[in-house]
């Protein structure tokens, strides 16, 4: 049961993020919601690679009595997560700069007002 | 060293290096920068044609990143290590589209992008957009697909908001960013699910050992809905008109083929990753329904539009429906004995329509951009009598409009004919709706032609500058060529793409080695 | 030549046929009355004098009848395309859930 807690956290994080994107009208809150979903997905990836009592997968620096490769955590999900975090930073920076420009033009951040493009 | 063996890496690497050289050259001289970008895009087109020719004649090309012999995938206990690029007929076909549209749009941009202080960065982003599209189409690795998807969406959002002195441009970019980023996160979650089950990221390797269980079903749902949203299928198309309208015209032309890269990813997921493992009947029906809804709602929303680019954007949604319909019918018939008779024809129609659509819709967006360049408005009510002075633009517009409406002898007719006849065999209602949509398409382009080009001379404007005309001319040339020789194109370019999609085993064996 | 399900399509043959028919039509047209001049017959305009100033029908007036007769449909569509980003995502989630049912229902109901 205790090992399922990270997965439950993943679901909760994604649900909270989706709630923010679906029901919050402030554009910055939507950006925050996207970041929360992204943290959820990143947590999911990192949890996949975790092994109970595992050590870092560095062959030259292994503690004694470690089973290879069973006793090591998976390195691939960590690489994936790192890439995903870097992409997330770029996305967040771009979204926030858009929000800033939108406020300059519309004098509002309400998604029900920022809709010149419709129909 | 065999050059053709290294071609996939060159195709992705060359524009990436060129992209970051562009701002440096921009500091030296603007003219040299323009020439440099055009030379890179022309080289890209030539290399792409060479690679595509190689793939169409010799079968799937493999490139393993960082291996001493890139054509052979190093396997360790049936696990392919390193990132593998896998270029089959479908990938090469999509790559041809991306390279051609980017070439036309790049030449067009030279005169079109006059305002703004980041013109060097504009070309940087344009080249990275090309990298993103080619990467998505070439990669044989799921996580790599996600990375290129994000590269593509970040660069396209930055370019949609290029004219950030208009409020609506930033608004369109914001909406596209939110929508595409959530779709991309769904894709990443699905990739995580598949990784948790198989400890693999390579599409072919996963497909080889996949068992269709609950986790795979959840991953399928996430992948299909995310890619369907990114390609603008109704009712998830709302971002498409918003962002297509406000982007600079050359970028809109590239955005059309960028959303087709997502369409490619959707087909790749359905055919190569899952293929006949999944319940292809119901997914086929889902694609057909997406197609019908997209066709009908897209075209009826296009009819009353007053903004020329928004009208065309709704047509882009509507034409995507034809592709989904054709390929959906193919997926629905997959495995049955009818697949080899009219299932293949339906898929040929759908896939042929992808390249036709990229060409004529790109051309139409470019003509709309030429009008915007002279009149500084997109509102159809303020236009009139442009054919008096903008003669070449109106000829290009007529060719594009006839092609999209499916009037012979242009290319749109050939692909639509294939779709109509094959869908008629499945269910006549599919063909009837498709033809009705085609008629409404013609009607709405008659409206645009009448209100923009016909009538008394209302504006004293000149013909569009030369670089705009050359950009439009390239696409027109391709449209006429494909219209005159559709049989040759279908047999030599489209058919290899269809067989590549339909034969999942070949795709697996190219990496996993028999 | 492009082989379709029911037959084939050849664009070059179509163009040749088009040119031949155009020539025939032109010849038949040449057999008509030679004393016809443009100003000898005016188009019928409901019995009213033809307007002399140049007019242009604006884009939003074209197909007014079509959109007016489909008012109900278009009012639904306009409500759908409301331009609010939250609703865009809501549609996406709704379609994902629908797809979820499509994929999982065959398991529940055999």
In short:
The complex is a heterotrimer of chains A (119), B (514) and C (110). Chain A is mainly alpha-helical and 119 residues long. Chain A contains three helices and no strands.
What does this structure look like?
The complex is a heterotrimer of chains A (about 120), B (about 525) and C (about 110). Chain A has helices at about 5-25, 25-50, 75-105. Chain A has a single domain (about 1-55, about 70-105), classed as Helix Hairpins. By secondary structure, chain A is mostly helical. Chain B is mainly α and about 525 residues long. Chain B has one domain. The longest helix of chain B is centred in the C-terminal third of the chain and has 34 residues, at about 340-375. In chain C, a hairpin with a 4-residue loop joins strand 1 (about 1-5) and strand 2 (about 10). Chain C has a two-stranded antiparallel ribbon. The relative contact order of chain C is 0.03. Chain C starts with a strand and ends with a helix. Chain C has four helices and two strands. Classes of the chains: A mainly alpha (about 120), B mainly alpha (about 525), C mainly alpha (about 110). At the B-C interface, helix 6, helix 8, helix 9, helix 11 and helix 15 of B face strand 1, strand 2, helix 1, helix 3 and helix 4 of C.
Helicity level of chain C, as a percent range?
Answer: 40-55%
Multimeric status of the protein: heterotrimer
Question: What structural class results from the helix and strand content of chain A?
Answer: mainly alpha
Q: Number of DSSP helices of chain C?
A: 4
Number of domains of chain A: 1
Rg from alpha-carbon coordinates of chain C: 28 Å
CATH architecture of chain A: Orthogonal Bundle
Largest interface here, residues on each chain?
B-C, 67 and 47 residues
* Physical arrangement of strands within the biggest beta sheet of chain C: 1-2
Beta fraction of the residues of chain A?
under 5%
Poorly predicted runs of chain C are none
State Rg of chain A.
Answer: 20 Å
């Amino acid at each position: 049961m205790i090992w399922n807690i990270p997965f439950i956290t993943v679901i909760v994080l994604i649900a909270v993020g989706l709630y923010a994107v679906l029901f919050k009208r402030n554009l910055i809150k939507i950006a925050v919601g996207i970041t929360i979903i992204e943290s959820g997905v990143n947590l999911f990836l990192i949890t996949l690679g975790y092994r109970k009592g595992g050590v870092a997968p560095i062959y030259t620096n292994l503690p004694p009595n470690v089973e290879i490769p069973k006793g090591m955590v998976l390195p691939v999900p960590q690489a994936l997560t790192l890439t995903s975090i870097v992409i997330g930073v770029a996305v967040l920076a771009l979204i926030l700069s858009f929000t800033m420009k939108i406020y300059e033009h519309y004098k509002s951040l309400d998604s029900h007002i920022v809709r010149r493009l419709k129909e | 060293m065999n050059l053709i063996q290294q071609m996939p890496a060159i195709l992705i690497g060359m524009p990436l290096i060129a992209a970051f050289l562009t701002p440096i050259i921009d500091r030296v001289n603007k003219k040299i920068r323009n020439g440099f970008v055009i030379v890179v895009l022309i080289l890209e087109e030539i290399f792409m044609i060479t690679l595509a020719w190689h793939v169409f004649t010799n079968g799937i090309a493999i490139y393993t990143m960082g291996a001493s012999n890139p054509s052979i995938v190093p396997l360790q206990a049936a696990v392919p290590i390193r990132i593998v690029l896998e270029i089959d007929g479908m990938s090469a076909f999509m790559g041809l589209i991306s390279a051609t549209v980017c070439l036309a749009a790049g030449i067009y941009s030279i005169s079109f992008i006059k305002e703004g202080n980041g013109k060097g960065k504009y070309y940087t982003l344009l080249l990275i957009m090309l990298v993103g599209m080619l990467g998505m189409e070439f990669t044989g690795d799921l996580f790599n697909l996600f990375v290129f998807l994000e590269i593509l969406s970040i660069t396209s959002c930055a370019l949609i908001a290029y004219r950030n002195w208009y409020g609506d441009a930033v608004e369109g970019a914001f909406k596209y960013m939110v929508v595409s980023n959530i779709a991309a996160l769904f894709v990443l979650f699905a990739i995580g699910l598949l990784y948790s089950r198989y400890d693999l990221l390579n599409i072919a390797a996963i497909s080889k050992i996949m068992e269709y269980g609950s986790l795979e079903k959840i991953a399928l749902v996430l992948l299909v809905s995310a890619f369907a949203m990114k390609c603008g299928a109704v009712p998830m198309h709302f971002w498409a008109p918003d962002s297509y309208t406000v982007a600079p015209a050359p970028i809109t032309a590239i955005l059309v083929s960028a959303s087709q890269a997502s369409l490619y990813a959707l087909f790749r997921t359905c055919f190569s990753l899952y293929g006949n493992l999944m319940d292809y009947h119901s997914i086929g029906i889902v694609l057909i329904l997406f197609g019908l809804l997209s066709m009908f709602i897209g075209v009826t929303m296009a009819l009353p539009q007053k903004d020329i680019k928004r009208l065309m954007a709704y047509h882009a949604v509507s034409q995507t429906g034809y592709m989904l319909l054709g390929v959906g019918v193919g997926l629905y018939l997959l495995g049955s004995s009818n697949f080899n008779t009219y299932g293949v024809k339906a898929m040929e129609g759908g896939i042929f329509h992808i390249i036709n659509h990229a060409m004529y819709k790109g051309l139409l967006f470019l003509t709309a951009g030429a009008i915007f360049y002279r009149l500084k408005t997109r509102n159809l009510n303020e236009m009139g009598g442009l054919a008096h002075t903008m003669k070449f633009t109106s000829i290009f517009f007529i060719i594009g409009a006839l092609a999209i409406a499916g009037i012979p002898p242009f290319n749109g007719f050939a692909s639509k004919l294939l779709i109509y006849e094959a869908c008629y065999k499945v269910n006549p209602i599919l063909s009837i709706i498709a033809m009705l949509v085609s008629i409404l398409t013609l009607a709405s382009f008659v409206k645009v032609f009448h209100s923009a080009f016909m009538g008394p001379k209302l504006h004293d404007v000149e013909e569009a500058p030369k670089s705009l005309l050359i950009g439009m001319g390239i696409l027109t040339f391709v449209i006429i060529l494909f219209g005159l020789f559709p049989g040759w194109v279908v047999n030599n370019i489209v058919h290899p793409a269809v067989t590549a999609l339909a034969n999942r085993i070949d795709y697996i064996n190219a990496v996993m080695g028999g | 030549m492009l082989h379709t399900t029911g037959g084939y399509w050849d664009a070059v043959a179509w163009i040749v046929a088009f040119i031949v028919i155009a020539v025939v039509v032109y010849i038949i047209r040449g057999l008509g009355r030679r004393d016809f001049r443009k100003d000898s017959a005016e188009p019928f305009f409901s019995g009213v004098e033809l307007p002399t100033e140049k007019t242009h029908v604006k884009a939003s007036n074209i197909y007014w009848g079509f959109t007016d007769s489909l008012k109900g449909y278009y009012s639904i569509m306009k409500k759908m395309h409301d331009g609010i980003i939250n609703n865009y995502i809501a549609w996406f989630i709704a379609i994902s859930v629908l797809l979820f049912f499509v994929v999982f229902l065959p398991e529940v109901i055999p």
